Amino acid sequence: MEEFIRLLDAGCEELGIVLTEKQKEQFFKYFQLLTEWNQVMNLTAITEMPEVVTKHFLDSLLVVKVFDGIRTEAYSCIDVGTGAGFPGIPLKIAFPQLQIMLLDSLNKRVGFLNTVIQELGLTGITAVHGRAEDFGRNKEYREQFDLCVSRAVANLSTLSEYCLPFVKAGGEFLPYKSGKVEEEAREAESAVKKLGGSMRETKTLVLPGTDVDRTFVPIDKINVTPKKYPRKAGMPGKEPLK
What domains can be seen in the chain, in order of their start residue? Predict the structure, then answer.
């Protein structure tokens, strides 16, 4: 555990985040649950402790470099396609004032997420099973969140159609992308506009303690998303908006 805490502390220091002892213990418990459950179901290909700390935990927290308000504001936030809980659970541990909903299309993963939430004693966070296309059309969730985050692997046009319908006008969508994505961002500009968003300048950062790039494409929600979006399940992926 000492090495784990040392790596976590060093990375958090670089990000200007100070964790309490309880929060450090929660991160360590999360790591233990992730590796334990990963032996019986496919949650992540990254299982070595130093890599989990940097490529999952610190990577999730890297968003503070582009959206400082997440440190202190009690935003309502949805994590679309959360998988094993990234970035939503690390954000909840580090910034407990956030109200977070984790959305994933695989029920087994939601079972894991609920176990993590319970074992870590987290409140103000829920995990739900469903597809973004269905939830995005549901009045209970549509345009209900200040913030949407996603590390899901999809091109930006597709991801925007999944995510922007959840965000209130005046809110923010913060997709986590790998490497340099200028061309992808340019190609998605028209789709983002159709969905009520406005793209800001991309920001590429380096993960603490590595030479790995992470690019954020901040998107402001400036108008209500037209009712026809998101299209029915499967369509955003098969035929990305242009």
Answer: 65-238 (3.40.50.150)
